[in-house]
């Protein structure tokens, strides 16, 4: 599943079409796609893993799910879920969720919980974490209402950086450690973006999919953790379990 930084790259890739009128629409989406025909795109926005195409009276929300992809000014052989044609190019989305959001897009999103948004509020993240003391931190970090844009890669890397065991209970983690984790969720997301643009993201992974802890030279544990049952890679020696 593409994480927040990858959706920001998508936003950058399509900026050429801001202010342009859609001249052709096609695809196998269940929405009324012809509603987009002859509409002018006012802006492209992102909220975490959501990509937003904004018009004057509604927006189209695209979520790439687990295996979604897109192409700008080119096509795959398979039929797109949504294809938008312009005077000088096209955008094609595949294997994704497409929905209509009526009215002002701001009524649907709290921009202050997006770890890569200029309105990101770490103090709000701390308050939200304090409301779920019995939840495992591996689940909390993936909660899009607290850390919008954070996915499993970022989760594993941040927990390793902060030396926190993924099955630690939120309420048992020292306050200063929570502050460190909150900060790293945003810091690492921007590093993720930088590395991905340079096509070198994987070589910077210290925990995700790794077999050995670089700090301890001990085997990593690979385990589905928390209620979300997402893959965690962690060292039981240097990542402290707070329970």
UniProtKB/TrEMBL annotation:
Keywords annotated in UniProt: DNA damage, DNA repair, DNA-binding, Endonuclease, Glycosidase, Hydrolase, Lyase, Multifunctional enzyme, Nuclease
Superkingdom classification of source: Bacteria
SUPFAM superfamilies found in the cross-reference section: N-terminal domain of MutM-like DNA repair proteins, S13-like H2TH domain
Name of the molecule in the record: Endonuclease
Provenance organism: Flavobacterium psychroterrae
Signal peptide: none
Protein family according to the UniProt entry: Belongs to the FPG family.
Cell inner membrane in keyword set: no
Domain Formamidopyrimidine-DNA glycosylase catalytic: 2-93
PROSITE patterns for this protein: FPG_CAT
GO molecular function terms listed in the Swiss-Prot or TrEMBL record: endonuclease activity
């Amino acid at each position: 599943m593409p994480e927040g930084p990858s959706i920001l790259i998508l936003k950058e890739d399509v900026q050429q079409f801001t202010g342009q009128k859609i001249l052709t629409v096609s695809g196998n989406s269940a929405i009324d796609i012809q509603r987009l025909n002859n509409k002018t795109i006012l802006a492209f926005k992102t909220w975490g893993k959501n990509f937003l195409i904004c018009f004057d009276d509604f927006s189209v929300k695209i979520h790439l799910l687990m295996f979604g992809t897109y192409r700008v000014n080119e096509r795959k052989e398979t039929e797109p879920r949504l294809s938008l044609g312009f005077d000088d190019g096209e955008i094609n989305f595949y294997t994704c969720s497409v929905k209509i959001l009526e009215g002002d897009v701001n009524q649907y999103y709290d921009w202050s919980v997006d770890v890569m948004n200029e309105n990101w509020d770490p103090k709000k993240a701390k308050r939200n974490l304090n409301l779920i003391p019995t939840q495992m931190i591996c689940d909390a970090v993936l909660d899009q209402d607290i850390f919008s844009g954070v996915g499993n890669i970022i989760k594993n890397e941040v927990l390793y950086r902060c030396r926190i065991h993924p099955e630690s209970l939120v309420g048992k983690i020292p306050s200063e450690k929570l502050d460190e984790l909150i900060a790293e969720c945003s810091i690492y997301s921007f590093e993720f973006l930088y590395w991905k643009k340079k096509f070198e993201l994987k070589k910077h992974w210290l925990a995700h999919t790794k077999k050995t802890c670089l700090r301890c030279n001990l085997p990593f544990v690979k385990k589905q953790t928390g209620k979300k049952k997402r893959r965690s890679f962690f060292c039981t020696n240097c990542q402290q379990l707070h329970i």
